[in-house]
Amino acid sequence: MTSSSNFAAKSSFLDRRIHLLEALLQEAVVAGERHVRQFAQCAVLIRTIETSRVRRSDRVKLLSALEALANEAETNARFDLEVFQSLLAGQLMKRQLARVSD
Predict the structure, then answer these.
(1) Roughly what angle, to the nearest 10 degrees, separates helices 3-50 and 56-101?
(2) I need a surface site. Which of 5, 28, 31, 62 has the fewest CB within 10 A?
(3) CA distance 88 to 76
(4) What does the alpha-carbon distance between residue 70 and residue 67 come to, in Å, rounded to a whole number?
(5) b/e for 13-47, b at 16 or more Cβ within 10 A?
(6) Rounded to an integer, what distance in angstroms lies between the CA atom of residue 8 and that of residue 18?
(7) Which helix H or strand E contains 5, and what residues bound it?
(8) Is residue 64 pLDDT above 70, yes or no?
């Protein structure tokens, strides 16, 4: 392999790696934005429940909605965490395999 073709291969590899990292970061941003929206909705429900003008029947409905939203946020957060942990584990495993093969 010539020096120029070696450089081109390395450059292509780095470009793909950068593209992958950008995609992963974009996914992290999307996940973070989703969590921010969910927590903001939780905060609105909590403030509404705290007001003394809310009837008891409405308060029960709001608490139910808050619980459902909190459960959904927790499920989403766990999923996101598992995705990023598995990606990290895959990268760590790939590095270990590369070290063993060197």
Answers:
(1) 160
(2) 5
(3) 18
(4) 5
(5) eeeeeeeeeeeeeeeeeebeeeeeebeebbeebee
(6) 15
(7) helix 3-50
(8) yes
